[in-house]
Structures are given as C-alpha cells and as structure tokens.
Amino acid sequence: NAGVTQTPKFQVLKTGQSMTLQCAQDMNHNSMYWYRQDPGMGLRLIYYSASEGTTDKGEVPNGYNVSRLNKREFSLRLESAAPSQTSVYFCASSERGRSSGRALNEQFFGPGTRLTVL
Amino acid sequence: AQSVSQHNHHVILSEAASLELGCNYSYGGTVNLFWYVQYPGQHLQLLLKYFSGDPLVKGIKGFEAEFIKSKFSFNLRKPSVQWSDTAEYFCAVNALKNRDDKIIFGKGTRLHILP
What we know:
The complex is a heterodimer. Chain A is globular and about 40 Å long. Chain A has strands at residues 4-7, 10-13, 19-25, 31-38, 42-49, 56-57, 65-68, 74-78, 87-94, 97-99, 102-104, 107-109, 113-117. Chain A has no helices and 13 strands. Chain B has strands spanning 4-6, 10-14, 19-21, 23-25, 31-38, 45-50, 56-58, 64-68, 73-78, 87-95, 104-105, 109-114. In chain B, the strands form three sheets. In chain B, strands 2, 5, 6, 10, 11 and 12 form a six-stranded mixed beta sheet that branches. In chain B, strands 3-9-8-7 form a four-stranded antiparallel beta sheet, with no helix packed on it. In chain B, strands 1-4 form a two-stranded antiparallel sheet. Chain B is mostly beta strands. The N and C termini of chain B lie far apart (41 Å). Helix content of chain B is 0%, strand content 51%. The chains are: A mainly beta, B mainly beta. The A-B interface holds A 31, 33, 35, 40-45, 48, 50, 58, 90, 92, 94, 96, 99-100, 102-107, 109-112 and B 9, 30, 32, 34, 42-46, 49, 51-52, 90, 94, 96, 99, 101-108.
C-alpha cells in the first residue's frame, strides 16, 4: 500500500496563477482532509470531506476550492494564487470505524506539497 | 469551539534528560486524543492515541501520555530522550459530538535534543 500520495512535491507559482494539488489514498478511507502548515501556526484545516460527494469548510477555506472526485481522490485548487498561500500543504485520510461505540479517527498523512507563490 | 493549547513552543534538552510536553484542550464532552510527530523534512506520523480505557497510553519509541479528564490535559512524556527525538510534536483532539470527523491540532512544540 502506498498510503496517502500527493502531487506535486514542489511548486512555484506567480501571483494570479491557478493550480490543483492532487491527493489519493489507497486505504479505502471515507474521510479526507487538506491542511496547510505554516511556521508557528501548526496545522490548519482548509477543507475536509467526510465521505464521497460531500465537502465542508475548515478553519481557513478562503482562496481554495476542493473536489472529492471519488472515494480515493481529493483535490485542492487555488484559482488565483496569492503570496499568503505560500505554505506546505498536507493531505490526510482517516476511517471512522467503531470500537466500544466510539468513532476512530487516526489520520494518515501524505508527504506534503511545498508551494511558493511569488 | 474546540481548541488545543501546547504550552511550549520550543524545548531544548540534553540527551538522557526527561521530557514532558504539555497539552490542554477545551471541550467538555467525549474526546479522542492524539500526539503526532514530524521529523525534519517529513510528514506527520502518529506517536500515540487515546480513545478510552487506561488513561496512561504508551506509544512508539518509548513515549507515553496521560489523559487527565479533570484537567482537560494530555501531556506527552519520555523518561530519557535521544538525539533522534529532535522533531516537532503536535497534540490533536477530535470531539465526538455529532460524530464530527474534524481533528484540531495544536500549534506544535519544536524539540531540539543536544548530543
């Protein structure tokens, strides 16, 4: 199993350009997430998808759109990139199993995409 | 709204010193709790997790954490750190109300171990 994969690993954009970050998981997980990581800010949730066909905003959704293409794939799109979107982007997935009536939510992370917007 | 506080942003220790990283969360209901580690240049990996049962949880690489419900805390400990423990550590919380799939992360603690 590859786990969670992301492409590309690195990207440099000019202000105003658009791009799509791709994420795929092969663990048959229902939930998928996009985070950005900035120094001193921890991980901030951009969007998440609890199941195929559904998406919800996280803490910092402005300037981003997402598509849950199927159960495996969850893409993040920047329509008009801004320097404030320079960051490392992580995709993650998790499964909501059940154990003693509680949901299980361990997340598995991809390797990240380092994006620079000039 | 849920939130997670990690008290130390930067910790510097010598090898063999004992480690305790603080984590507090702000949610009064049932929670799942996690500690993740991120080694330099890598993605996050799970260190340990608490769902229910024994509040003292043991994870990989000699780490453990104690859930104290009355203090809303989930502190990470290791009796004797190694140089290879140099990394950033994140506490995370998932509140089970409404079966929410979101996990809220703290801002992280950067740990530097001196050889």
